[in-house]
Amino acid sequence: MKFLVGIDAGGTNTVCGLLDGRGNLLHKIQEPTEAHLGYEQVIDKIARMVKSLLASEQIAPGQVLAVGIGNPGLVDPDRGLVRFAGNLGWRDVEVVKLLQNRLNIPVFADNDVRMYAFGEAIRGAGRGYDHVLAITLGTGIGAAMVNQGQMYYGSGFMAGEIGHIRMDGEQAPCACGMYGCLETVASATGIVRQVREAIANGKSSLLQSWFPGENLCKITAADVSKAYDAGDAVAVEVLQHTGKLLGKALSYAVSLFSPDVIVIGGGVARAGERLLHPAREELKRFVYKGYWARLTIRTATLLDDAGVIGSGLLARQRLEEASPAQLHQHHRNGNREEK
Amino acid sequence: MKFLVGIDAGGTNTVCGLLDGRGNLLHKIQEPTEAHLGYEQVIDKIARMVKSLLASEQIAPGQVLAVGIGNPGLVDPDRGLVRFAGNLGWRDVEVVKLLQNRLNIPVFADNDVRMYAFGEAIRGAGRGYDHVLAITLGTGIGAAMVNQGQMYYGSGFMAGEIGHIRMDGEQAPCACGMYGCLETVASATGIVRQVREAIANGKSSLLQSWFPGENLCKITAADVSKAYDAGDAVAVEVLQHTGKLLGKALSYAVSLFSPDVIVIGGGVARAGERLLHPAREELKRFVYKGYWARLTIRTATLLDDAGVIGSGLLARQRLEEASPAQLHQHHRNGNREEK
Fold this sequence. Notes:
Shape of chain A: globular
Mean pLDDT of chain A: 94
CATH class of the largest domain in chain A: Alpha Beta
Structural class of chain A: alpha/beta
Strand order of the largest sheet of chain A: 3-2-1-4-8
Radius of gyration of chain A: 21 Å
CATH topology of the largest domain in chain A: Nucleotidyltransferase, domain 5
Largest interface: A-B, 39 and 39 residues
Number of domains of chain A: 2
Oligomer: homodimer
């Protein structure tokens, strides 16, 4: 029997998962990434995690077809390079070569949102649909499009930045250097920012009594959902506005990408219908009826495992697509450093 | 030597072009489509046009690898079907089968904007770029994305409808049933509508003296460019507003598709920098700097020939991709009706 390994290397934690050849998650382990130690240490740790994962399941490295690793930031999957990852502090790190040296298994890297989207598209909420748009609403916003099992990349592997579409009427500064990006509103940070601004502007909210004084800075998006359920006007207004803006941005993506299904994941998706109801209404108002009629909107089903599963499955796909000559080169590049 | 035939079947005129195997246009002929005669008559005429084109160049049908036909409206290229084309009055017309019956050459159909985009991507302004977004600004607005020579289709072959993105602040009714679509502003009809509305709202324009009284309804987008050059305030305001709105809509497409180059074609593109300068400025303001740095914006170079060239080249690509079994099926379906 052959296996796959999927790695989700986040800014805070790294998860390694063992999958069977079809992408069923058999076992996973998690450790803090400790990015402050530098990329060599982080990659050493990941390699140790993979080895101990395999050892614990009594699997020889030779039984593993491929390893996939999802990294945050700008990743060049063709060159196996993390070009820039702010929250890891990585710039031009040859993650494929470095990890392959340590594992002697073919390694493939990609952006973590794309890995997540691939997992949801193939084995999660997008399963059975040909054209899957997956969007993650977390601290930031990411998205990726998978068409008939093929990832859409665009120039510089930079497609899918729905989070950095500038929304009319929005003004908040964004980490990307622009103002009013969708991410400043429909991310966890965006939702909390809106609540704080509403309170600062004199609106009163239950959240003030739940988080008195200085504690107000501890509010999370989940707290805003709780306040919504308690009928808090600020929370209701913020989640409705956020949902509407998300729906409008999704209308742009639907008109351009034409997905069959939109899979919504990430921590903010836990707001569920509080957010998705206004999003759906606005999306319906903003797209041609021919799109609306064929469109399904679903929340992610693999949740925290989507990245690990997608990483393993995308690695398998890239292994299958690679010619023997490319694989030889891939492996040779990987082994060069050890000489 | 092997040849290709490309057909651009528009609502008004149909153009048939003979190409060499690499897509160089050798000769073309044009006739009125006469859509009112019904689809059988139109397809009969197109078949006669192709035969006379080949005869005039002394080429046997057996020397033609494939015929491509671009139709307006919703086309299903896999089934060779024009599902709906309002300006031809066609619904579920099996254009591939019908034309193949008459020609005994493999025929491939697609939407005319995609054929145009493919021509510009492979042989026109997009040549040498990996990720080409082509947009046509004419009576309506169409767009298509070609990635490394592969057409992007999306669900229902409906991707690329940038013309039906609803733009904030715009209210004009659109043919699609919505309001404020980009097409209501940045098409030829949209530009003329804006000028007429400005005049109706009491603004004064040189165009009133050029087109006195009832003649005002004869204004074209080209006249608006002439008025712009004469310093007419209404024309300047309309073209600047139109350019800005186009730039904003393009920013959505850039953030999602990540093209290397945007090719702008269609009659309205003749406004050139009058439109493209404000479009470029607004696009720059609305996209992350990482996109702007790698992006080129060009006007189309094949002009009226892009559709014919693209049709021939896309037919060649689909012929090459088809398995022998598929081609057999393709041909058999095509011949079925004659029995």
